[in-house]
Amino acid sequence: MTWWDPASANPGPPMPTPEQIKERIAAAFPGAPVELVPNGSPAGQPSLLLEPGRARDIARFLRDDPELRFDYASNVTGVDWPERLEKPKPGEPAARKTPAFLEAVYHLYSMALGHGPLVIRLRTGDRAAHVTLPSLTPVWRSCEFQEREIFDLFGIIFDGHPDLRRLLMWDNFAGHPMRKDYAPARDPEAEP
Question: What pTM did the predictor assign?
């Protein structure tokens, strides 16, 4: 048994599928791009990629909609996706290059309805100049320290965060140590 068993919480209606949740978002926010991202792992749980410009409004909808009520963000993490070549799909002439970007990944649960998780993602424009995403701390207070950790270790700037500053590294630390291109300083005097 895990720390939280949805069946023993507040048994309510079954959780809508990510596809159904995507449809509910599309009905509430016409024209807002929401992409269903498949998951090739054994769990196979897809996630929803939200456009950053509408992410906070959609997050409030996910929290407040009476059939969803995702009232708890249990985990937020960062991911560094370097540039990569993807194999060509049938009918495509050649492999395509996917540019590098950073992601913030949120795992949501409904404590009120006893379901979850729903995984949502926010993606930066790149890894250098366009690394700002909206903070979801105003929607789920549990995101505050986790977004600070992502800021510190990956360099994503969370717009609207109430206290965005380094959490694990010292203030004049150079770089973001969880990025795949991070190279530690060789100067022992660089540490505090």
Answer: 0.86
